Amino acid sequence: DVQLVESGGGLVKPGESLRLSCAASGFIFKKAWMSWVRQAPGKGLEWVGRLKSTSDGGTTDYAAPVKDRFTISRDDSKNTLYLQINSLKTEDTAVYYCTTIRWFGSFDNWGQGTLVTVSS
Amino acid sequence: DIVMTQSPDSLAVSLGERATINCKSSQNLLYGSDNDNFLSWYQQKPGQPPKLLISWASTRESGVPERFSGSGSGTDFTLTITSLQAEDVAVYYCQQYSSTPPAITFGQGTRLEIK
Fold first, then answer.
1. Is the distance from CB of A38 to CB of A114 less than 8 angstroms?
2. Which of B41, B93, B104 should be substituted to probe chain A, the one whose Cβ sees the most A Cβ atoms within 10 Å?
3. CB nearest A108 (choices: B31, B52, B105)
4. Contact residues, chain A, for B41 at CB < 8 Å
5. In whole angstroms, what is the distance from residue B113 CA to residue B92 CA?
6. Per residue of chain B (115 residues), what is the pLDDT tens digit?
7. Distances (CA, A) of A120 to A14, A15, B58, B69, B72
8. Is any Cβ of chain B less than 8 angstroms from the Cβ of A45?
9. How far separated are the first and last CA of chain A, in Å rounded?
10. Which of A32, A89, A107, B16 has the largest CB neighbor count within 10 A?
């Protein structure tokens, strides 16, 4: 079975940085396109960004509101996806989900999410 | 950016009845010449991550009950749940993908409850 397990969330202060991790298993990670989606408390879903497989170029795409502060990367040797968030803002408070994403944009597998709370 | 607007925001339907959720895109989501659309539907139950129900506007995912169906093309799409079951209580989201430049947006969600 596909498993995606996020970690690294917690309470951080505005302006600080944080790195989230997503441990993947149950599929060939190095061939998968991966993505992050976030959900503020009681709100809807917001796409954060996408990382293609290395064999497909390994390129990233980001949502406009986060592209200057967020970086998605992967370590195929560890079957792990990362999300680096810099200069955290209160509006970054959300559950961050790690997902697999098909080439046509459907998110077909989701982790349980990790909560990031940004507050002074 | 493409804006996705769902209607209604919330919906209460009796058990066994039909539920219909609409999703309108601010731009055409048609891809290629085979009437395929970059439109997906998700179900999110309380305390759980979303679950992909339908992709390509009308292709049901493996394991999704047949009472769930998607339709529409271009800018107007519908998710229909025939014969509503108690376990269908959830928030439903539509989502579009645009390839140039790559961008993804979700509708605001529709909360479905039992009447």
1. no
2. B104
3. B52
4. none
5. 11
6. 899 999 999 999 999 999 999 999 999 999 887 789 999 999 999 999 999 999 999 999 999 999 999 999 999 999 999 999 999 999 999 999 998 889 999 999 999 999 9
7. 6, 10, 45, 46, 46
8. yes
9. 40
10. A107
Give residue B62's identity as a one-letter amino acid code.
S
Residues of A in contact with B97 (CB under 8 A): 104-106
DSSP per position, chain B: ---EEEE-SEEEE-TTS-EEEEEEESS--EETTTTEE-EEEEEE-TTS--EEEEETTTEEPTT--TTEEEEEETTEEEEEESS--GGG-EEEEEEEEEETTEEEEE---EEEEE-
Chain A CA closest to residue B40: A106
Tell me the C-alpha distance between A63 and B36, whole Å: 24
> H-type helices in chain A, by residue range?
none
**What's the residue count for chain B?**
115
Closest residue by Cα to residue A96 from A33, A41, A14, A58: A41
Cis peptide before B8 (omega within 30 of 0): yes
Local structure of residue B32 (DSSP, 8 states): T
Reduce the DSSP state of residue A91 to 3 states and report it: helix
Q: Is the N-terminal amide bond of B50 cis, ω within 30° of 0?
A: no
